[in-house]
Write a structure and sequence with these properties.
The chain has 232 residues and is mainly β. 13% of the residues lie in helices and 56% in strands. It has one helix at 2-32, and strands at residues 37-47, 51-54, 60-63, 66-76, 81-87, 90-97, 113-120, 123-129, 138-155, 162-165, 168-180, 185-195, 197-203, 212-218, 222-231. A hairpin with an 8-residue loop joins strand 13 (197-203) and strand 14 (212-218). The longest helix is centred in the first third of the chain and has 31 residues, at 2-32. The protein is elongated. The model is unreliable at 1-19 and 21-33 (pLDDT under 50).
Length: 232
């Protein structure tokens, strides 16, 4: 009888301890994930790592840097895994470098002004955060994902008649970190690399009848940002 009583008491204690441990685990998980969303407002610099294959006139491409605000949203599926969507748009000036336009009466080395273009590159990345939400003030992360770039508001400049850019899909990689000031507010530093190519068609029929110049342009920008964020 004493043995049975001892076994029952032991099993009861084990069950009680297990239930209490599960309750604590659940409470911790709930506390850690009570703010699954983050929003950041960053100032970003966009630095194209450009090159091009230009038909007929040859040469290379030059695309200006840009500095713009950017908004992004992050959702945490677990303590370590999250997804981030960035939203921002930028204007870039474009020109060729060292093109040969002697066939249409110009010099053999000439920089053709191709005006400007606006880029809207929404980018979705999957992220791994090295530390759980509340364990560290310094929270580094890495990410990789996909980008779809929309080209719009094309201004062709004063040289050619028109320019057409094809929208393009590319890949993205990122590294960054958050520094928490409270359990709600933080600052952020982030670096992304987009791998992006587009086909461009330049209508130069104003220079020579029927002249159309094709080009394959690699943009591959680095995007460097710093900003503030909030969990909610």
């Amino acid at each position: 009888m004493r043995k049975i009583t001892f076994i029952l008491v032991t099993v009861s204690l084990m069950i009680t301890n297990f239930v209490q441990a599960q309750e604590k685990t659940t409470e911790k998980a709930t506390a850690d994930c009570e703010r699954n969303w983050q929003v950041r407002l960053r100032g970003i610099g966009i630095f194209p790592d450009q090159s091009a294959t230009i038909g007929i006139i040859g040469g290379d491409i030059a695309i200006s840097n840009a500095y713009v605000p950017e908004l992004d949203f992050t959702y945490f599926f677990t303590e370590h895994f999250a997804a981030e969507l960035i939203l921002g748009t930028a204007k870039h000036d474009v020109n060729t470098v060292g093109s040969d336009i002697s066939a249409i009466g110009g010099p053999t080395s000439y920089d053709v002004d191709l005006g400007s273009v606006m880029l809207l590159p929404p980018t979705l990345t999957a992220q791994y955060h090295f530390f759980p939400m509340k364990e560290k003030k310094f929270k580094p992360y890495v990410g990789a994902g996909i980008n779809y770039t929309i080209f719009y508001n094309v201004e062709e400049g004063d040289v050619v008649k028109g320019i057409e850019y094809d929208n393009a899909i590319g890949f993205a990689g990122q590294v960054g970190f958050d520094i928490l000031f409270t359990d709600k507010y933080f600052v952020n530093f982030d670096v992304k690399k987009l791998f992006l190519k587009t086909d461009v068609t330049v209508d130069a029929s104003n220079l020579a009848t029927g002249l159309s110049i094709p080009a394959e342009v690699t943009i591959d920008p680095w995007i460097v940002g710093i900003g503030v964020g909030m969990k909610f």
